[in-house]
Fold:
Amino acid sequence: MNVKSGTTSFYCSAYDKIVFIRKDGSYQVIRAPEKQFIGKDVIFVEKLNAKTVHNVIYCEGASRVCYAKRFRVEKFILDREYNLFPIKKGAKILHLSQGEGIILEIFFVPVPRIRKSKDIYILDDLAIKGIQSRGNKVSSKSVQSMKVTTVMPEQAQQPPLPEDIEN
Structure:
């Protein structure tokens, strides 16, 4: 079986399970079918691996308060739809990734007298919790956008340390 996910494709057997996540935060685990239409609002499709750690940052509707969480998809009922976070009007996923070593630069909504317009958020600092947990609050400020950075800005500005020379 060949599953197409955007520009990538992967092969799976009849015994594999496929997990897909939608933009609104719902997810579903299904058996690998011959052919199935999932929908247009799917942002993630992959073979299920219980050891894979997923990272999600979501915004909770009109308040623009963001939460971050790390989880594994371990327990589920096939063909049943679940939610990653409580459904509220305007709630959406801002960032979805897998693995470790992900550093995000978060930009806040500009308001008068704001001291910091952006902040660094390290996803590895979060504990891996259950999939139904709410997550940790990213900031008390409203988040406008975010982008993935590979190197923290403080580390990039520091000169490298001289190496010890052995005689």
Q: What stands out?
A: The chain has a mean pLDDT of 83.
